[in-house]
């Protein structure tokens, strides 16, 4: 492993830029192998750092993988001694505080497999510049605190009729040699990471939106011709987002046009480039026949997320990349609230909390653990993490809980007003929240700087004579790499109390409300409720009011009681989760001590009651009936014993399936829909419960159940039902049957990229069918493309991250396979390689044998040769725990 890559950048070393760029004039002559990029920059000394009578410092321009053709200042070619090309950029000496710099470079989009900078996807030119991709396009001060007004001219052959960039189209024509030429002007100053360019033979759908002040905005969604029928849902989602941001945050769109482009080759979900969002096709294209309900909902939330960035990210941006959560945490919070308003609030919250508990908590306890605002990084691409995004959103949510909705809105209004057009910090966000409300968030700020998931231990006492009920809550945050001696955090804990008959108690101390937010600020604190006539049952951390692990010794009977009576739907689900986890832990102990596994009676009873409760939202029922994933069970603490987890979970699933088979069948038939597909919350809820029932019915193994699944598969009414039936058939049918259904599905859908991705994922993630041998075959399949991150995610990540059973096969072959894939991918796409290695980073948590095997796989990567900076950072930090 090469360690010259180990350049660490620290937040404490931040310095304001020496020079500003007032105007950026770019021109592109597109060619797959030799694109000519000319940039003209109006540069001036940054007055904020200039000293009187100073010697001007050199100008630094970042650049990577560029062929430098020429450098001119004020129209004169610069002699070679005035500039130096170094690793990572260009340094120029200047003799005036203000000048025009012109740089010509050549780049090869065709050869760019990192999908950062300018590259080709199915013959279409597109860009991805966040965080540091612009430096692969031209030499530039590629940092978010340099904000410039951009003009972009694109020249391309006539076979690329659509030429797009940020802002408004101001000119177009044809060059003397017959090429097309278009010029775009973006009036809003922006950092280089928000620059975008697209060129291709694209179709589009068009709509319009009238803003709250009456301006008409043109909305366009561009795709390759074959996908033009899949744009409607994204367009509707965009219009809903635009309206919601006006109504909830008072934010109006600012340009006359808003464009979205779908591309097949993309490292993540989407990108919020000013006025020209670029999306991974999988996160924008949908039709009922080809996309599942989950895809419809994902599209709605990502379209909203990118749109919301126009204010939280673009108009107000980050000073430096340590502040990434300023835009990402806030925007995730905004999109989560939007989705909650559009769909079922409880279900959205459950999904977000499941992600946190399964993956963010693991990240926070692993070798890459970092605070929401990291202190250092080697490669910023590695810090687009669940901690920065999801925990960051939880931090914003806690501010919302502490201040209340009206005060939060006053804070966000002040934040946008104060910092419009500026590049600012997380501190500026918190300060605006305080200043708008005279609030004190001094201790709360520790959430931004302290890593690790806090653990809360709760005990209670009841004094019958005084009618007082007390909660004692202790907090403790575990040590994380490089951070010892954690301080107490300000943690808002929403609590309700249930009386013996299940009714909610009015809390005298909370002005007769049914619930109260307790502010835990000390290491240990006591909270007393007066006027309580008999011992209550506490409903703690309602709505998951803080991203913590909460321990309270509930009995199974108490959890079943909460499942039925809690007025907080999230906590009803959470009680069910706790009951499942307790049952699964007992089963794991039985497995480890070689005993016969016992029926999880309390869990079956609890599930039966949930299924019998006709008043419960079917979506919530489906969530309650889903056993925690193996990965989530693994995160419960202690040494991970993969075999015990798999045995316990499979046993519990089959026991539930057998015991409740009749109920599942009745509910399945009652939920069959005889109406056209619609992605409404109600219909999605019904389908999710129906398909949960189908899965359990097939798990119980009767031929009738498989026939039911076969019928649903063959009717093919919508992709949600078809894919759910296929998943059940693959998991519980014979191998020959599974093979047959998968073949039939592929035959029908092989022309559709998104469905083929679903098809790959169904196989690689199957506990029974997704063996290593099968995954190796999928990699050799003609539809697999190693240069397409969606395919890599569907097959390789599907196996390594969503197929606990096969990935952790006892011979360790899954680990070696992943190591080999990561080594190969690193040469093509470092960002994807560094993401894919995640399952190997937690080697320390496993039992001795697996731990040694995973460690060996990491070592294999580490000695495989020169690694990218991305992969080097993750692998070296993971091995440092030795
Ligand atoms: N801001 C982009 C993420 C860019 C990731 C760069 N490696 C998408 C988003 O969060 O909206
Ligand atoms: Zn974002």
Automatic annotation (TrEMBL):
Keywords: Aminopeptidase, Hydrolase, Metal-binding, Metalloprotease, Protease, Zinc. Pfam families: DUF3458, DUF3458_C, Peptidase_M1, Peptidase_M1_N. Residues 452-553 form the Peptidase M1 alanyl aminopeptidase Ig-like fold domain. Its EC number is 3.4.11.2. It comes from the Bacteria. It catalyses: Release of an N-terminal amino acid, Xaa-|-Yaa- from a peptide, amide or arylamide. Xaa is preferably Ala, but may be most amino acids including Pro (slow action). When a terminal hydrophobic residue is followed by a prolyl residue, the two may be released as an intact Xaa-Pro dipeptide. Gene3D superfamilies: 2.60.40.1840, 3.30.2010.30, Neutral Protease Domain 2, Peptidase M1, alanyl aminopeptidase, C-terminal domain, tricorn interacting facor f3 domain. Belongs to the peptidase M1 family. This is Aminopeptidase N. It comes from Microbulbifer pacificus.
């Amino acid at each position: 492993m090469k360690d010259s890559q180990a350049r660490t950048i620290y937040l404490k070393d931040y310095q304001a830029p020496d020079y500003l760029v007032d105007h950026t004039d770019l021109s592109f002559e597109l060619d797959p192998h030799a694109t000519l990029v000319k940039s003209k920059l109006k540069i001036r000394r940054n007055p904020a750092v200039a000293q009187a009578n100073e010697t001007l410092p050199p100008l630094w321009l970042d650049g990577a993988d560029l062929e430098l053709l020429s450098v001119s200042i004020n129209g004169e070619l610069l002699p070679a001694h005035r500039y130096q090309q170094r690793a990572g950029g260009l340094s120029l000496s200047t003799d005036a505080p203000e000048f025009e710099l012109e740089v010509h470079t050549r780049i090869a989009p065709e050869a760019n497999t990192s999908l950062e900078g300018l590259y080709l996807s199915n013959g279409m030119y597109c860009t991805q510049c966040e965080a540091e991709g612009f430096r692969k396009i031209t030499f530039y001060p590629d940092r978010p605190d340099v904000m410039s007004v951009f003009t972009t001219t694109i020249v391309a052959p006539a076979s690329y009729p659509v030429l797009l960039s940020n802002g408004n189209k101001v000119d177009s024509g044809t060059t003397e040699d017959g090429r097309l030429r278009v010029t775009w002007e973006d009036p809003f100053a922006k950092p280089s990471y928000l620059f975008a360019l697209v060129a291709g033979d694209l179709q589009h759908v068009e709509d319009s939106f009238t803003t709250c002040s009456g301006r008409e905005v043109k909305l366009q969604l561009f795709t390759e011709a074959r996908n033009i029928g899949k744009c409607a849902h994204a367009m509707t989602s965009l219009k809903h987002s635009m309206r919601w941001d006006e109504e909830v945050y008072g934010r109006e769109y600012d340009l006359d046009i808003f464009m979205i482009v779908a591309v097949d080759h993309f490292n993540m979900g989407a990108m919020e480039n000013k006025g020209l969002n670029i999306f991974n096709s999988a996160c924008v294209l949908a039709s009922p026949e080809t996309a599942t309900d989950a895809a419809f909902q994902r599209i709605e939330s990502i379209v909203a997320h990118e749109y919301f960035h126009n204010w939280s990210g673009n108009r107000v941006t980050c000073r430096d990349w340590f502040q990434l959560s300023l835009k990402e945490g806030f925007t995730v919070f905004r999109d989560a609230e939007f989705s909650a308003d559009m769909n079922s609030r409880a279900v959205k919250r459950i999904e977000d909390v499941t992600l946190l508990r399964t993956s963010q908590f693991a990240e926070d306890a692993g070798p890459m653990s970092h605070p929401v605002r990291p202190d250092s990084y080697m490669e910023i691409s590695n810090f687009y993490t669940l901690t920065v995004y999801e925990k960051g959103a939880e931090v914003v949510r806690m501010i919302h809980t502490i201040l209340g909705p009206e005060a939060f809105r006053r804070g966000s209004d002040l934040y946008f007003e104060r910092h419009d057009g500026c590049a600012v910090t997380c501190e500026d966000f918190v300060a605006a929240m305080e200043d708008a409300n005279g609030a004190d968030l001094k201790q709360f700020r520790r959430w931004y700087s302290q890593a690790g998931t806090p653990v809360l231990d709760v005990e209670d006492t009841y004094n019958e004579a005084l009618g007082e009920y007390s909660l004692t809550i202790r907090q403790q945050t575990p040590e994380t790499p490089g951070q010892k001696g954690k301080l107490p955090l300000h943690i808002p804990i929403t609590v309700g109390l249930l009386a013996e008959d299940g009714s909610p108690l009015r809390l005298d101390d909370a002005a007769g409300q049914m619930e109260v937010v307790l502010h835990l600020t000390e290491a240990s604190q006591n909270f007393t409720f007066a006027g309580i006539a008999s011992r209550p049952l506490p409903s703690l951390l309602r709505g998951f009011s803080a991203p913590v692990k909460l321990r309270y010794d509930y009995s199974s009977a108490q959890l079943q009681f909460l499942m039925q009576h809690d007025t907080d739907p999230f906590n009803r689900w959470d009680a069910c989760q706790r009951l499942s986890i307790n049952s699964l832990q007992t089963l794991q102990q039985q497995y480890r001590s070689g005993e016969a596994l016992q029926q999880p009676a309390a869990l079956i009873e609890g599930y039966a009651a949930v299924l019998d409760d006709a008043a419960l939202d079917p979506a919530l029922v489906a969530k309650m009936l889903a056993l925690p994933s193996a990965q989530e069970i693994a995160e419960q603490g202690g040494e991970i014993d993969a075999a015990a987890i798999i045995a316990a979970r499979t046993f519990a699933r089959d026991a539930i399936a057998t015991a409740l088979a009749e109920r599942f069948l009745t509910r399945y038939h009652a939920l069959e829909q005889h109406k056209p597909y619609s992605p409404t919350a109600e219909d999605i809820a019904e389908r999710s419960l129906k398909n949960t029932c189908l899965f359990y019915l097939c798990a119980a193994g009767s031929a009738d159940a498989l026939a039911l699944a076969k019928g649903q598969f063959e009717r093919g009414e919508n992709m949600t039902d078809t894919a759910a039936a296929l998943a059940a058939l693959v998991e519980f049918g014979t191998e020959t049957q599974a093979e047959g259904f998968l073949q039939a599905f592929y035959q029908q859908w092989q022309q559709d990229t998104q469905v083929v991705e679903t098809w790959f994922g169904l196989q690689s993630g199957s506990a029974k069918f997704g063996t290593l041998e099968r995954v190796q075959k999928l990699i050799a399949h003609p539809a697999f493309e190693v240069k397409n991150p969606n395919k890599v995610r569907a097959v390789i990540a599907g196996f390594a991250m969503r197929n606990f059973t096969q990935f952790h096969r006892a011979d360790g072959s899954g680990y070696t396979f992943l190591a080999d894939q990561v080594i190969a991918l690193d040469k093509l796409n470092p960002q994807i390689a560094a993401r894919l290695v995640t399952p190997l980073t937690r080697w320390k948590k496993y039992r001795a044998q697996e731990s040694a095997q995973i460690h060996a796989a990491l070592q294999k990567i580490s000695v495989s040769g020169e690694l990218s900076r991305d992969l080097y950072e993750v692998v070296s930090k993971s091995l440092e725990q030795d």
